[in-house]
Design brief:
The chain is an alpha+beta fold. It has a four-stranded antiparallel sheet with strand order 2-3-1-4. The chain has a four-stranded antiparallel sheet with strand order 6-7-5-8, with helices on both faces. Helix 11 packs across helix 19. The two termini are 36 Å apart. The N terminus is likely disordered.
Length: 731
Amino acid sequence: MKTRSDWTPARWLRIVLPTVVIVIWFVAGSLGGPTFGKLSGVSSNDQAAFLPASAESTAVQDWQKRFTDSQAVPAIVVVQSDSAIPPSDLASFAVLGAKLGDVTGVQAPESGQSTSVAGPIPSQDGRAVEFIVPVADTNNVKTVVADLRSVLKSELPSGTQGWVTGPAGLTADLVNAFGGIDGILLLVAVGAVFVILLLVYRALLLPVLVLLTSVFALCAAILVVYLFALWGWIKLSGQSQGILSILVIGAATDYSLLLVARYRESLEHDESRWTAIVKAWRAAFEPILASGATVILALLCLLFSDLNSNKSLGPIAAIGIVFSLLSALTLLPTLLAVFGRAAFWPFRPKYAGGEHAHDHKHEGTERVAGLEGFRGVWRRVGLLIAHRPRVTWIVSFVVLVACAFGLTQLKANGVEQTALVLTQSDAVDGQKVLAKHFDAGSGAPVVIIAKEADGDAVLAAAKKNDGISAATLYAGNVRPAQPGQSAPPPVVKDGRVLIQATLKAQPDSAAAEQVVRDLRRDLPSAVSGAGPGVLVGGATAIALDTNDTAQRDLLRIIPIVLLVILLVLMLLLRSILAPVLLIGSVVLSYAAALGVSALVFDHLFRFPGADASVPLFGFVFLVALGVDYNIFLMTRVREESLRLGTRPGILRGLGMTGSVITSAGVVLAATFAALAVIPILFLVQIAFIVAFGVLLDTVLVRSLLVPAVSYDVGRAIWWPSKLWRAPGHSV
């Protein structure tokens, strides 16, 4: 008599059900695939767009819109001469300024003006001139800057060199660096996964089936994310776009590996491929669903962030994990059922005739309960844990703690915008030339909002700051007063005036940020009466507020993520002690990975620092994904413990999951490492932290620390569940 697990669907169902599932996914893929190239059109890399409404620099931006309708981003064109530029040559440079102003996308001149471009402005040393070019077409900054560079190259006087820098130039180079996200990143990630799968399975068709599962999941996720961004429901950035692709490919492949391992195991005990896939699906469903739910919930905890870039990444990445789950639990089992044992060709699993038929095959000379049937590395690891569990976990713990001491070297207080792009950048080179001949902060002034009655006092106080080279009350788009003329009256909006202060330091430097902090501290003393005081904003303040908000997010979100994951583990394992130990292990693993990464960043790669969001993103990905592997391990350990007892169950669970979890870790590490092909400092750092952390978690934490601690604790690991009190289970 057939049991429910031996169920084989009717012939018509074996044809109709797979056809429907495959067609649905192919439709999703055909709709989502073409949107890959469209994502850049709905994404933004504007740092200001991701600040919370409560930030002081956000309030200043709102005030700025009242003073001018223009949302132009300034491009600074700097021209350096091999020799001193005589005043008589400035007329020829004025011709260059006019041609720069004629570029499509540059703000049109106002009535009475021949051009909107300010300049040529000669440097004090007479070796350079600069132009301030307002770029009005902010949606196509990359194109406008490219055109400005073309004009500059063709119109430069002999004996001079020119660069396009400033906020617009830096933004354009940043967008160019993100250009490989749509193609190169995905190609490298898929290629790396395909090679690893070939080595793991030594099969030709199976890697294709697994990658199809991942790619279709990504296509469906991209389609939903694109629509949500188009409708304005989420804010998409280049970094979110890159992380989405990597996360979906890696997670879907990991879930697929667990299902494939169960399927291969079932094929050895069940002759029918349909019976085998049903058994495999039932066995893999709970750990895959729990793992996916854990990652989704951890990512959604980013919604508690005050920084909109973090907040938006949560639902974007969660959408990716949802489709990774759906594809691994629907499309892949369908494909495996259709192809059966042929999917593993040329090394097809053979039907051996019964459950646990090979328990004693390849058994070593030393018999240890739970290790029957294992040989090779996982038998040796199991013997080590069985004979010396306490020594094993203590040594592992000490190694991780030693690695974590590298955290003292971590510099995650933000970096200069000129350090974000790791390849050659015309804007970065131009910024260095600009700082050599002019005040480095020209073109990106500090913006101060004050009450009209306090305008002169606040202006005087701002000029006293040693980091400010000049400050003026905003008088609209009028020419500056000539010597002997009175200054034009300032523009007043709703009883407020706007002050523009030029920084001596580079606008995105630590020195410039300190000037903003000093102004925010000192200027309120110049304000009279009650009511709203002085507000200090601008590009430097935006960077400062972004870093400060990211650091607050780290302290807020980490406890929330840990609590959510702890509750999920308690529900899954029906235990309190085991989840607490697992959470402790992944936190220690994260600290060790971040510590080693800090040392590598400082002493090997010589990075200037790290974005303040790097530790948070590293935490969310490593803790959530690290728990994934512990879920894969401990759900199998619990299953085997119910049958064999706790300590034999730990050894058998480790042996049964060792290869698949190690393979999954290598795949995930390789996919995140692919982020390093995008020459953006933030993505390269995330790539290393997560790739190294996943390998550390897979090789040391999941293979040695967790099973050794569990073996040492014994049956109490399941406290207070029934398994802890199970009769006959003395270990």
